Protein backbone atom coordinates (compact mmCIF):
# COMPACT_ATOMS: atom_id res chain seq x y z
CA UNK A 1 0.00 0.00 0.00
CA UNK A 2 2.55 2.60 1.10
CA UNK A 3 5.38 2.93 -1.35
CA UNK A 4 8.07 3.85 1.13
CA UNK A 5 8.83 4.89 4.67
CA UNK A 6 11.95 6.79 3.63
CA UNK A 7 11.95 9.59 6.17
CA UNK A 8 10.20 8.95 9.43
CA UNK A 9 10.36 10.58 12.83
CA UNK A 10 9.45 8.90 16.12
CA UNK A 11 6.10 9.91 17.63
CA UNK A 12 7.84 10.47 20.97
CA UNK A 13 9.53 12.82 21.55
CA UNK A 14 9.92 14.55 18.17
CA UNK A 15 6.45 14.51 16.66
CA UNK A 16 4.48 14.95 19.90
CA UNK A 17 6.57 17.91 21.09
CA UNK A 18 6.42 19.64 17.70
CA UNK A 19 2.64 19.27 17.67
CA UNK A 20 2.47 20.52 21.26
CA UNK A 21 4.51 23.61 20.37
CA UNK A 22 2.19 24.42 17.45
CA UNK A 23 -0.86 23.82 19.67
CA UNK A 24 0.50 26.25 22.29
CA UNK A 25 1.10 28.93 19.65
CA UNK A 26 -2.49 28.41 18.48
CA UNK A 27 -3.89 28.78 22.00
CA UNK A 28 -1.75 31.90 22.39
CA UNK A 29 -3.32 33.30 19.21
CA UNK A 30 -6.77 32.57 20.67
CA UNK A 31 -5.91 34.60 23.78
CA UNK A 32 -4.67 37.49 21.61
CA UNK A 33 -7.84 37.41 19.48
CA UNK A 34 -10.07 37.18 22.55
CA UNK A 35 -8.22 40.05 24.23
CA UNK A 36 -8.12 42.35 21.19
CA UNK A 37 -11.59 41.51 19.87
CA UNK A 38 -13.65 40.30 22.85
CA UNK A 39 -17.09 38.79 22.36
CA UNK A 40 -19.32 41.58 23.64
CA UNK A 41 -22.97 41.39 24.49
CA UNK A 42 -25.63 42.75 22.15
CA UNK A 43 -29.14 43.79 23.13
CA UNK A 44 -31.40 41.16 24.67
CA UNK A 45 -33.85 39.15 22.55
CA UNK A 46 -37.12 40.95 21.83
CA UNK A 47 -39.83 38.69 20.45
CA UNK A 48 -41.95 41.63 19.32
CA UNK A 49 -39.34 43.33 17.12
CA UNK A 50 -37.91 41.52 14.09
CA UNK A 51 -34.51 43.04 13.26
CA UNK A 52 -34.12 44.38 9.71
CA UNK A 53 -31.53 42.92 7.36
CA UNK A 54 -31.07 39.83 9.52
CA UNK A 55 -28.13 37.70 8.45
CA UNK A 56 -26.89 34.35 9.71
CA UNK A 57 -23.36 33.76 10.98
CA UNK A 58 -20.68 33.74 8.28
CA UNK A 59 -20.52 29.94 7.87
CA UNK A 60 -24.19 29.82 6.77
CA UNK A 61 -24.04 32.83 4.43
CA UNK A 62 -23.54 30.67 1.31
CA UNK A 63 -26.68 28.63 2.04
CA UNK A 64 -28.54 31.80 3.05
CA UNK A 65 -27.67 33.41 -0.30
CA UNK A 66 -28.98 30.37 -2.20
CA UNK A 67 -32.13 30.25 -0.08
CA UNK A 68 -32.85 33.92 -0.79
CA UNK A 69 -31.93 33.86 -4.48
CA UNK A 70 -33.83 30.72 -5.52
CA UNK A 71 -37.50 31.69 -5.86
CA UNK A 72 -38.85 28.22 -5.02
CA UNK A 73 -38.37 27.76 -1.27
CA UNK A 74 -38.12 23.97 -1.48
CA UNK A 75 -35.43 24.20 -4.18
CA UNK A 76 -33.66 26.79 -2.04
CA UNK A 77 -33.14 24.10 0.59
CA UNK A 78 -32.54 21.20 -1.77
CA UNK A 79 -29.70 22.89 -3.69
CA UNK A 80 -27.47 23.55 -0.62
CA UNK A 81 -28.41 20.04 0.56
CA UNK A 82 -27.19 18.55 -2.71
CA UNK A 83 -23.94 20.53 -2.44
CA UNK A 84 -23.31 19.07 1.02
CA UNK A 85 -24.24 15.63 -0.29
CA UNK A 86 -21.81 15.99 -3.19
CA UNK A 87 -19.04 16.94 -0.75
CA UNK A 88 -19.66 13.80 1.32
CA UNK A 89 -19.45 11.49 -1.71
CA UNK A 90 -16.37 13.14 -3.24
CA UNK A 91 -14.32 9.89 -2.96
CA UNK A 92 -16.86 8.14 -5.20
CA UNK A 93 -17.27 11.05 -7.60
CA UNK A 94 -13.52 10.87 -8.12
CA UNK A 95 -12.73 7.16 -7.80
CA UNK A 96 -9.41 6.98 -9.70
CA UNK A 97 -6.54 6.15 -7.35
CA UNK A 98 -4.34 8.82 -9.01
CA UNK A 99 -3.18 11.42 -6.47
CA UNK A 100 -0.95 13.73 -8.55
CA UNK A 101 -2.71 17.04 -9.27
CA UNK A 102 -1.55 17.05 -12.89
CA UNK A 103 -3.26 13.70 -13.50
CA UNK A 104 -6.63 14.68 -12.07
CA UNK A 105 -7.07 18.07 -13.70
CA UNK A 106 -10.79 17.74 -14.50
CA UNK A 107 -11.89 16.69 -11.01
CA UNK A 108 -9.63 19.25 -9.34
CA UNK A 109 -10.97 21.99 -11.63
CA UNK A 110 -14.60 21.12 -10.83
CA UNK A 111 -13.86 21.05 -7.10
CA UNK A 112 -11.97 24.36 -7.29
CA UNK A 113 -14.81 26.03 -9.21
CA UNK A 114 -17.23 24.83 -6.52
CA UNK A 115 -15.01 26.35 -3.83
CA UNK A 116 -14.91 29.68 -5.73
CA UNK A 117 -18.73 29.53 -6.07
CA UNK A 118 -18.90 28.99 -2.29
CA UNK A 119 -16.79 32.12 -1.72
CA UNK A 120 -18.90 34.17 -4.15
CA UNK A 121 -22.13 32.97 -2.52
CA UNK A 122 -20.73 33.91 0.90
CA UNK A 123 -19.87 37.38 -0.45
CA UNK A 124 -23.39 37.77 -1.90
CA UNK A 125 -24.94 36.59 1.37
CA UNK A 126 -22.82 39.08 3.30
CA UNK A 127 -23.32 42.17 1.14
CA UNK A 128 -26.70 41.91 -0.60
CA UNK A 129 -29.84 42.90 1.30
CA UNK A 130 -32.60 40.49 0.37
CA UNK A 131 -36.33 40.69 0.73
CA UNK A 132 -38.99 43.22 -0.04
CA UNK B 1 5.08 -0.71 34.81
CA UNK B 2 4.95 -4.34 35.91
CA UNK B 3 2.22 -3.39 38.43
CA UNK B 4 0.13 -2.11 35.52
CA UNK B 5 1.17 -5.03 33.34
CA UNK B 6 -0.19 -7.50 35.91
CA UNK B 7 -3.57 -5.75 35.90
CA UNK B 8 -3.74 -4.89 32.20
CA UNK B 9 -1.81 -7.55 30.27
CA UNK B 10 -0.26 -6.13 27.11
CA UNK B 11 -0.41 -2.47 28.18
CA UNK B 12 3.38 -2.14 28.18
CA UNK B 13 3.54 -3.28 24.59
CA UNK B 14 0.74 -0.88 23.60
CA UNK B 15 2.44 2.08 25.30
CA UNK B 16 5.76 1.20 23.60
CA UNK B 17 3.97 1.00 20.27
CA UNK B 18 2.47 4.48 20.71
CA UNK B 19 5.73 6.05 21.87
CA UNK B 20 7.87 4.55 19.12
CA UNK B 21 5.32 4.82 16.34
CA UNK B 22 7.03 6.12 13.20
CA UNK B 23 5.46 9.23 11.71
CA UNK B 24 6.31 10.22 8.13
CA UNK B 25 8.42 13.37 8.25
CA UNK B 26 6.38 15.18 5.56
CA UNK B 27 3.71 15.70 8.23
CA UNK B 28 5.94 18.32 9.88
CA UNK B 29 4.62 20.71 7.22
CA UNK B 30 2.21 23.35 8.63
CA UNK B 31 -0.60 22.34 6.24
CA UNK B 32 -0.55 18.89 7.84
CA UNK B 33 -1.25 20.48 11.25
CA UNK B 34 -4.71 21.81 10.36
CA UNK B 35 -6.58 18.68 11.47
CA UNK B 36 -4.68 18.50 14.75
CA UNK B 37 -5.39 22.19 15.38
CA UNK B 38 -9.10 21.56 14.78
CA UNK B 39 -8.88 19.01 17.60
CA UNK B 40 -7.09 21.56 19.82
CA UNK B 41 -9.87 24.08 19.07
CA UNK B 42 -12.42 21.44 20.10
CA UNK B 43 -10.54 20.78 23.36
CA UNK B 44 -10.53 24.54 24.06
CA UNK B 45 -14.30 24.47 23.48
CA UNK B 46 -14.75 21.63 25.98
CA UNK B 47 -12.72 23.39 28.70
CA UNK B 48 -14.15 26.90 28.19
CA UNK B 49 -17.60 25.36 27.68
CA UNK B 50 -17.49 23.66 31.10
CA UNK B 51 -16.54 27.01 32.67
CA UNK B 52 -19.41 28.81 30.92
CA UNK B 53 -21.92 26.05 31.76
CA UNK B 54 -21.18 26.54 35.46
CA UNK B 55 -22.61 30.08 35.36
CA UNK B 56 -25.07 29.88 32.46
CA UNK B 57 -28.80 29.44 33.15
CA UNK B 58 -30.81 27.98 30.24
CA UNK B 59 -34.13 29.68 30.86
CA UNK B 60 -35.74 32.50 28.90
CA UNK B 61 -35.93 34.65 32.02
CA UNK B 62 -32.32 34.17 33.12
CA UNK B 63 -30.23 33.32 30.03
CA UNK B 64 -29.33 36.87 28.99
CA UNK B 65 -28.75 38.01 32.58
CA UNK B 66 -26.46 35.05 33.28
CA UNK B 67 -24.37 35.79 30.17
CA UNK B 68 -24.26 39.42 31.29
CA UNK B 69 -22.97 38.22 34.65
CA UNK B 70 -20.33 36.01 32.97
CA UNK B 71 -19.18 38.93 30.82
CA UNK B 72 -19.06 41.67 33.44
CA UNK B 73 -18.84 40.06 36.89
CA UNK B 74 -17.37 36.56 36.86
CA UNK B 75 -13.58 36.53 37.21
CA UNK B 76 -12.02 35.64 33.83
CA UNK B 77 -15.58 35.35 32.48
CA UNK B 78 -15.08 37.82 29.65
CA UNK B 79 -11.88 36.21 28.35
CA UNK B 80 -13.24 32.67 28.65
CA UNK B 81 -16.34 33.69 26.70
CA UNK B 82 -14.19 35.35 24.05
CA UNK B 83 -12.00 32.23 23.81
CA UNK B 84 -15.13 30.11 23.34
CA UNK B 85 -16.32 32.48 20.60
CA UNK B 86 -13.03 32.56 18.71
CA UNK B 87 -12.24 28.87 19.05
CA UNK B 88 -15.73 28.09 17.68
CA UNK B 89 -15.15 30.19 14.57
CA UNK B 90 -11.58 28.94 14.09
CA UNK B 91 -12.68 25.33 14.54
CA UNK B 92 -14.87 25.68 11.46
CA UNK B 93 -12.15 27.55 9.53
CA UNK B 94 -9.46 24.99 10.41
CA UNK B 95 -11.74 22.03 9.69
CA UNK B 96 -12.54 23.49 6.27
CA UNK B 97 -8.88 24.23 5.47
CA UNK B 98 -7.97 20.70 6.61
CA UNK B 99 -10.57 19.39 4.16
CA UNK B 100 -9.01 21.44 1.34
CA UNK B 101 -5.57 20.02 2.19
CA UNK B 102 -6.91 16.46 2.16
CA UNK B 103 -8.67 17.09 -1.15
CA UNK B 104 -5.77 18.69 -3.02
CA UNK B 105 -3.21 16.14 -1.81
CA UNK B 106 -5.61 13.34 -2.82
CA UNK B 107 -5.33 11.90 0.67
CA UNK B 108 -9.01 10.82 0.65
CA UNK B 109 -8.40 8.24 -2.07
CA UNK B 110 -8.55 4.48 -1.62
CA UNK B 111 -8.46 3.16 1.12
CA UNK B 112 -9.35 6.35 3.02
CA UNK B 113 -12.79 7.13 1.53
CA UNK B 114 -14.68 6.53 4.77
CA UNK B 115 -12.39 8.84 6.70
CA UNK B 116 -13.32 11.62 4.25
CA UNK B 117 -17.00 10.90 5.00
CA UNK B 118 -16.34 11.00 8.77
CA UNK B 119 -14.51 14.32 8.28
CA UNK B 120 -17.46 15.78 6.36
CA UNK B 121 -19.78 14.85 9.22
CA UNK B 122 -17.36 16.47 11.67
CA UNK B 123 -17.52 19.70 9.66
CA UNK B 124 -21.34 19.57 9.69
CA UNK B 125 -21.32 18.81 13.43
CA UNK B 126 -19.06 21.83 14.04
CA UNK B 127 -21.57 24.00 12.21
CA UNK B 128 -24.44 22.44 14.19
CA UNK B 129 -22.62 23.15 17.44
CA UNK B 130 -22.02 26.75 16.35
CA UNK B 131 -25.67 27.17 15.33
CA UNK B 132 -27.12 25.81 18.58
CA UNK B 133 -24.57 27.70 20.70
CA UNK B 134 -25.36 30.99 18.98
CA UNK B 135 -28.88 31.05 20.51
CA UNK B 136 -27.75 30.54 24.10
CA UNK B 137 -26.87 34.18 25.02
CA UNK B 138 -30.45 35.01 23.99
CA UNK B 139 -29.45 38.20 22.23
CA UNK B 140 -31.72 39.85 19.70
CA UNK B 141 -29.77 38.61 16.66
CA UNK B 142 -29.11 35.13 18.04
CA UNK B 143 -32.80 34.68 18.91
CA UNK B 144 -34.01 35.68 15.45
CA UNK B 145 -31.31 33.63 13.70
CA UNK B 146 -32.68 30.55 15.49
CA UNK B 147 -36.27 31.48 14.64
CA UNK B 148 -35.32 31.72 10.97
CA UNK B 149 -33.29 28.51 11.24
CA UNK B 150 -36.35 26.66 12.53
CA UNK B 151 -38.48 28.32 9.84
CA UNK B 152 -36.03 27.11 7.15
CA UNK B 153 -36.02 23.57 8.56
CA UNK B 154 -39.82 23.74 8.46
CA UNK B 155 -39.90 24.04 4.69
CA UNK B 156 -38.04 20.74 4.21
CA UNK B 157 -40.12 18.09 2.47
CA UNK B 158 -41.83 15.39 4.59
CA UNK B 159 -39.93 15.86 7.88
CA UNK B 160 -40.00 19.71 7.77
CA UNK B 161 -43.16 20.54 9.74
CA UNK B 162 -42.43 18.06 12.54
CA UNK B 163 -38.78 19.10 12.68
CA UNK B 164 -39.83 22.72 13.07
CA UNK B 165 -42.18 21.84 15.95
CA UNK B 166 -39.39 19.83 17.59
CA UNK B 167 -36.96 22.75 17.32
CA UNK B 168 -39.41 25.39 18.51
CA UNK B 169 -41.07 23.30 21.22
CA UNK B 170 -44.48 24.01 19.71
CA UNK B 171 -46.32 25.31 16.68
CA UNK B 172 -44.98 28.76 17.52
CA UNK B 173 -41.59 29.60 19.04
CA UNK B 174 -41.67 28.87 22.78
CA UNK B 175 -39.22 29.07 25.64
CA UNK B 176 -38.66 25.35 25.15
CA UNK B 177 -36.55 26.18 22.10
CA UNK B 178 -33.79 27.46 24.40
CA UNK B 179 -33.85 24.27 26.52
CA UNK B 180 -33.67 22.11 23.41
CA UNK B 181 -30.79 24.01 21.84
CA UNK B 182 -29.05 23.93 25.21
CA UNK B 183 -29.32 20.14 25.45
CA UNK B 184 -28.17 19.74 21.84
CA UNK B 185 -25.24 22.11 22.38
CA UNK B 186 -24.03 20.66 25.68
CA UNK B 187 -24.78 16.96 25.36
CA UNK B 188 -26.11 15.51 22.13
CA UNK B 189 -23.87 17.19 19.54
CA UNK B 190 -20.62 17.02 21.60
CA UNK B 191 -21.23 13.30 22.25
CA UNK B 192 -21.79 12.59 18.55
CA UNK B 193 -18.79 14.76 17.64
CA UNK B 194 -16.51 12.83 20.03
CA UNK B 195 -17.69 9.52 18.54
CA UNK B 196 -16.91 10.72 15.02
CA UNK B 197 -13.52 12.08 16.17
CA UNK B 198 -12.57 8.73 17.71
CA UNK B 199 -13.59 6.96 14.49
CA UNK B 200 -11.59 9.55 12.50
CA UNK B 201 -8.42 8.97 14.55
CA UNK B 202 -8.75 5.18 14.60
CA UNK B 203 -9.02 5.23 10.81
CA UNK B 204 -5.90 7.43 10.56
CA UNK B 205 -4.00 4.86 12.66
CA UNK B 206 -5.36 1.81 10.85
CA UNK B 207 -5.08 3.20 7.30
CA UNK B 208 -1.84 5.07 7.96
CA UNK B 209 -0.91 8.60 6.94
CA UNK B 210 -0.96 8.97 3.19
CA UNK B 211 2.36 9.13 1.36
CA UNK B 212 3.83 12.45 0.24
CA UNK B 213 2.86 13.50 -3.25
UniProtKB/TrEMBL annotation, chain A:
Keyword Nucleotide-binding belongs to the record: no
Record protein name field: Cytochrome b6-f complex subunit 4
GO CC terms of this entry: membrane
Residue ranges that the Swiss-Prot or TrEMBL entry lists as coiled coil: none
Localisation per UniProt entry: Membrane
Alphabetical list of PANTHER family matching this protein: CYTOCHROME B (PTHR19271:SF16)
Lineage: Bacteria, Bacillati, Bacillota, Clostridia, Eubacteriales
Cytochrome b/b6 C-terminal region profile domain span: 1-132
Bilayer disposition of the protein: Multi-pass membrane protein
Swiss-Prot/TrEMBL keywords: Electron transport, Heme, Iron, Membrane, Metal-binding, Transmembrane, Transmembrane helix, Transport
Species this chain originates from: Heliophilum fasciatum
Stored Pfam families: Cytochrom_B_C
Segments passing through the bilayer: 12-33, 74-93, 105-124
Main location: membrane
GO molecular function (one): metal ion binding
Keyword Transmembrane among UniProt keywords: yes
Domain of life: Bacteria
TrEMBL record, chain B:
InterPro entries, sorted: Cyt_b/b6_N, Cytb/b6-like_sf, Cytochrome_b_N_euk/bac, Di-haem_cyt_TM
GO biological process: respiratory electron transport chain
GO molecular function: electron transfer activity; oxidoreductase activity
Membrane-spanning segments: 31-56, 86-104, 116-135, 181-204
Pfam family, one: Cytochrome_B
All copies of domain Cytochrome b/b6 N-terminal region profile, residue ranges: 1-213
GO cellular component, one term: membrane
Keywords: Membrane, Transmembrane, Transmembrane helix
PANTHER family for the chain: CYTOCHROME B
Protein name (record): Cytochrome b6
Species, as recorded: Heliophilum fasciatum
